[in-house]
Specification:
By secondary structure, this protein is α/β, with parallel strands linked by helices. The chain is built from 13 helices and 23 strands. It comes from Mucilaginibacter terrae.
């Protein structure tokens, strides 16, 4: 056989391997047996640590998407929440339109998928590329099919019949991608265009029976208000929102202010039992209440507080957000939203973004599926607002979170054994102090490290011996 023929055969084999290489396959996410948490297809616990990369598909090119996803991977994130269509006239970084003539029932799909040829690489090929890139990095994609502002009843851009065609297109296109989670809705009340949301949810469920589906509601509301009993909804999310205690004066919504743990309490007590999580708390570096850019901005301490409060209350995970990253603010933008001053590639390394992994590591450091919220661990007053203490426990351990490091006492009767080992976990660094073992008593007093002040947050870790 000539060298020329051998070379041709080798090139053919290499080419065949390249062509037939499919998307990376991640374990399919499922609901745990007790219906409180997630697990992977291989029965391992899955703690949802998400990031709101809402405009990823529309704003970033392939190299930028690589930088963003790799950074989040290294930081421990395993879910990215992203809009598939944010605007009825959606166009991506390459100038490709998502739809034909702004018709949601007509995705603009071209034949072929050749990145080197602009006429053979369209908006949906770009979405495919990023979804597959995320899978290779072990990241799941929580896709919002179409943002609520596009569907909003007064716009009439997405009637139920067209929504069904569009949802069917999505379900069939991404049927074989195991890293897809469907996040119906998009910052909108379920009472607005309810028929559309139920149509999208039911269509996705019919064609993607193995994929998890939820609903992303508007600020200070939760999906369970409208869709808890719908068969297409596997788990609940809520958007605790960006308002301070003083700003939460809505007459329509429950006035929880910054107490995002209260949303978890509502969902936790509903039947049938379904997992729940805060899918959009206050973003790091976004102004209090969003719109007045002269007001103070939420900090890393705030996003930590939202995380530990909601998870210890019984949440199955937590989604972090950053003002600059969620909108993928770039130097080429003519303006920015909510007073964003830095670019996404700078803010992906903000303190809060890097600290989120510590909560995931803590929750996975002990037995997972037996964990329950348990405020009976708090001896005496539980506190209010920033003084509020949150407690959760498994069969042989307990965690108690304090946001400001004030002294508190613990009732240990719910823990087994005759001795208690106590240590302090630092949410800012992920470091745990050396443990102290003492005889178990009905009530034990604890003094967190440092001087009491907001942001001097700690988790008391108790292990029964």
């Amino acid at each position: 056989m000539s060298k020329k023929v051998i070379c041709i055969l080798l090139l053919a084999v290499i080419g065949l391997a390249f062509v037939t290489e499919g998307p990376a396959v991640l374990p399919q996410l499922k609901i745990s047996a007790n219906h409180r948490y997630f697990l992977t297809g291989n029965e391992k616990p899955f703690f949802w640590l998400g990031d709101t990369g809402w405009l990823l598909f529309a704003k970033l090119n392939r190299s930028e998407a690589e930088k963003y996803l790799e950074t989040r991977k290294q930081q421990g994130y395993n879910v990215i929440q992203v809009m598939v269509i944010h605007d009825i006239k959606e166009v991506n970084a390459y100038g490709d339109s998502a739809l034909v003539a702004s018709n949601i029932a007509k995705p603009k799909v071209t034949e072929g998928s050749n990145p080197a040829n602009a006429t053979e690489y369209d908006y949906w090929d770009h979405v495919d590329y990023i979804v597959d890139l995320a899978a290779k990095k072990g990241i799941y994609m929580a896709l919002v099919p179409v943002w609520g502002s596009v569907v909003k009843s007064k716009n009439h851009d997405v009637p139920a019949d067209k929504a069904k065609v569009y949802a069917d297109f999505l379900a069939k296109r991404y049927r074989d991608r195991s890293n897809i989670i469907w996040m119906n809705g998009g910052d909108i009340a379920g009472s607005d265009s309810t028929k559309v949301w139920n149509t999208i949810g039911a269509t996705l469920r019919e064609s993607n029976p193995d994929k998890l589906i939820t609903y992303h509601p508007r600020g200070r509301t939760q999906s369970s208000t409208w869709f808890h009993n719908e068969q297409w909804l596997d788990f609940n999310t809520f958007q605790s929102g960006h308002r301070t205690y003083a700003q939460d004066t809505s007459k329509k919504d429950l006035k929880y202010g910054e107490d995002n743990w209260k949303y978890v309490n509502v969902d936790y007590n509903k039947t049938p039992i379904k997992p729940t999580l805060d899918a959009e708390p206050s973003y790091e570096k976004i102004p209090w209440g969003l719109h007045n850019v002269k007001l103070p901005r939420w900090t890393a301490a705030d996003v930590r507080r939202y995380g530990y409060w909601s998870v210890f209350a019984g949440g199955c995970g937590y989604t972090y957000g950053n003002n600059d990253v969620m909108q993928m603010h770039k130097p080429t933008d003519k303006n920015s939203a909510y007073g964003s001053k830095q670019y996404w590639y700078q803010s992906i390394n903000d303190p809060g973004a890097k600290q989120m992994v510590y909560i995931k590591k803590l929750m996975l450091s002990r037995s997972y599926f037996d964990r329950v919220p348990d405020q009976s661990l708090i001896a005496g007053k539980q506190g209010t607002r920033y003084n509020y203490l949150l407690a959760t426990r498994g069969k042989s351990y307990a965690f108690i979170y304090t946001y400001n490091g004030k002294n508190f006492s613990v009732n240990t009767t719910s823990l087994p054994g005759t001795k208690i080992k106590s240590s302090w976990f630092n949410p800012r660094t992920g470091v745990t102090t050396a443990g102290i073992t003492q005889a178990k008593a009905k009530t034990l007093a604890f003094n967190p490290p440092g001087e009491p002040k907001n942001g001097n947050d700690w988790v008391l870790v108790l292990d029964a011996i």
